[in-house]
Amino acid sequence: xxxxxxxxxxxxxxxxxxxxxxxxxxxxxxxxxxxxxxxxxxxxxxxxxxxxxxxxxxxxxxxxxxxxxxxxxxxxxxxxxxxxxxxxxxxxxxxxxxxxxxxxxxxxxxxx
Length: 112
What we know:
The chain has two helices and four strands. The protein is of the alpha+beta class and 112 residues long. It has a single domain, classed as 2-Layer Sandwich (Alpha-Beta Plaits). It is elongated.
C-alpha cells in the first residue's frame, strides 16, 4: 500500500491577513506531518516584496487601477498530505485571502 501523495502549498499574503490565512489552511488540514510526532500547523514564512499593476476591470484590495504597486508580503509554504487536503486548503485560502485574486501555487512532491 502506497503512502498518500504530498503537495506543497505556497501563497503570498499581506502581513495583516497572515494569521487569518494560516488559520484557514490549517483548519482544512494543511501543515500536518504524518508520523509519530503528531506535528501540526507547520509552515515556513518569509518576507518579500510583491508587485502588480491592476487592470482596468480590477477592484484591488491594495493600490489603484493602472498604477504599479509594491507591497511587502509574506510567503507561506506548507505541506498538504493527500490531494483532498490540498484542494480544501486552497478553497479555504481563497475564502479568507483579501486579494481579488490570491497568488498561490501547488506542487506535487516526489517521495525519495
